[in-house]
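User: Sequence for Probable dual-specificity RNA methyltransferase RlmN below. Tokens please.
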Amino acid sequence: MATEIPLVFSASRRAMPPKHFADLDSTQRIAAVEALGLPKFRAKQIATHYYEHLQADPQQMTDLPANVRAAVQESLFPTLMEPVTSIACDNGQTQKTLWRLHDGTLLESVLMRYPDRATLCISSQAGCGMACPFCATGQGGLDRNLSTGEIVEQVRHAAATMRDEGGRLSNIVFMGMGEPLANYKRVLSAVRQITSPSPEGFGISQRNVTVSTVGLAPAIRKLAGEDLSVTLAVSLHCPDDELRDTLVPVNNRWSVQEVLDAARLYADTTGRRVSIEYALIRDINDHPWRADMLGKKLHKALGSRVHVNLIPLNPTPGSKWDASPKPVQDEFVARVAAQGVPCTVRDTRGQEIAAACGQLAAEERDASSS
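Assistant: Structure tokens for Probable dual-specificity RNA methyltransferase RlmN:
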């Protein structure tokens, strides 16, 4: 079993939520139902309801004896999260939901519908301890890790929404609040539940799951050994250590080269192309020479197994950080591509609904304190 990767920035000691069915492995689920006086086959029965039918209310699990449903609810299905608000844009195709957890902690998820797929961006921590100055979540700090159940429940809710619309949730990106690899054990458990076939999981293809990181090199190397084929996305944002030390403070611990070496190990081990995330910030990291440096370093480290995903910055209110002008963006793309590295600009969704990660939670906190 994977061990916890030490946090770079410690979480506060808020209590974790009560145990949920999704927090348990198959052996623990059998033990849990037996503790309720039920035969062990009920564990598989309940799992089928949860992962295949997307049902988390035992009262609706009609093949369970009526006299045990309340006990199953209390023991295995505590309410982990309640929606605070849900707002939509892009003609209803993008939906951002703010959730309140059992301890009042806030987290966000974003469901994006496209003609050929439906993608859910999920959070792995409440807040974030990586302290990147241009990120709304990073400015709020880290509240705590999410439990496996809290991560998985974001997926179940979205999958149920898509099912009710006659569609299907097809893609998951761990690009919401938090640093996924700083909550390694629970994120790994969630990934396995997201991708395992029913009745052990939702059956989403591993190749349609992306795990993002700001560059926790030891955790990237560990992930390479987990026998997964998920996409690794590295939020690099800068090719040189001098600037990256400021933009991505974890760089003071693991340099650009160490991160790229770990990414190469992941690519070599899995055969998967690595995605490099690069938020383009006006007059900060958008210089032509940085585009040249980025392309050269990535080509040397990863060859053909890399793709740059350029992200026009979605500035937060009152921030000094702003998006680069389109001509600058276009030149940056061309210069990276000239080094033999594919580079595209991410489709920006939800700008009018505070879609930059952490904005909605920050607005809710401000409203509650005023």
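The longest strand covers residues 81-89.
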